[in-house]
C-alpha cells in the first residue's frame, strides 16, 4: 500500500508540488492565523472546539484535487493542472459546509456516550473520498456503506494521521526551541509540515477507500 | 429541476473571494471604507450571478436568488455570532442589504443569459 502511494507521489511530483505550494500552504497559514485569533478573542465562547473544527476543515477542504489525481492515475489517464484547480474551486464550499454540519452534530451528540462523535468523525473523514457522486443521497449512502464494512480501519487511519502530524510538529518545535523565534515563524513551519505531508495522506486515503466503487463522474466548470 | 449540489458548487468561488479579500483588506493601511465595501460586495454577487446559471441550467434565476440570499444571511450571522457586530439590530438595514444583494445577482444573471442567447443566435 505505501509503495503504491509513493509511486503515485513520484509520478505526479511536479503537479503535486505546485498544488501544495499554491493551495495547501496559503490555506494552512490562513487557518492557523484564524486559530490564533479565536484563542485571543474575547467574544468566542468555546475556542478549543472551534479551533478543532478549523483544523478538520483544513484537512477536508484540500482533499478533492488529490483524490481526482489518484483516480485519474488508477485509470491511466493524463491530468492537467487546470483540471485540478477547477476541481478544487468547484468542490470547496460543499466540503466545507458538510464538514461543519457533521462536526456540529458530533459535538452536540457527545453526551450520548460519544457514539455520534465517533460515527461523525469517521463520516467526516470518508466524505471527501466519494465527493464526485452525482447526488447527495448516493454520496452519504456510499460513505455509510464504507463505514459499515471497514469500521475499525477508519478509526485507525484517523489515529495514524493525527499522531503523525503531532509527532512531526513536536519534533520540529523541540529542534527550534532554543532559537529566537517570532510568532510567524511557527506558523510558517506548521504550514510547511502540512505542505509536504498532506498529499501523502490524501493519496493514501483515496487509494484505500476509493477503489470499492468504480464509476466516477467529476463535474467541474 | 433544481440541483442543490450545483448551487453549492456555484457558491464556492464567491465564498473564497469573500474570505481572501476580507483577509487582505485588513492589511491595507489607509483604505477608504466605502471603496472596500464596494470591492467586497459587487464582485461576490456578480460572480454568483454568473456561476449559478452554469450549474443550474433549468432554473437559473432561482439558483442565483437562493445563492446570494444564503451568502448574505451567512455574512449577517457570522457578524452577529462571532465578531458581535450588531447586524441584526436594525430590521430596515437587514432588509436593504438582502434586497441589494439579491437584485445585483439577479440582474447579472439576466444580462449573462441574454448575452449567451445572442451569441448562440449570431453563430447560427
UniProtKB/TrEMBL annotation, chain B:
<feature type="transmembrane region" description="Helical">
    <location>
        <begin position="62"/>
        <end position="83"/>
    </location>
</feature>
<feature type="transmembrane region" description="Helical">
    <location>
        <begin position="95"/>
        <end position="114"/>
    </location>
</feature>
<keyword id="KW-1133">Transmembrane helix</keyword>
<feature type="transmembrane region" description="Helical">
    <location>
        <begin position="35"/>
        <end position="55"/>
    </location>
</feature>
<keyword id="KW-0812">Transmembrane</keyword>
<feature type="transmembrane region" description="Helical">
    <location>
        <begin position="7"/>
        <end position="29"/>
    </location>
</feature>
<protein>
    <submittedName>
        <fullName>Uncharacterized protein</fullName>
    </submittedName>
</protein>
<keyword id="KW-0472">Membrane</keyword>
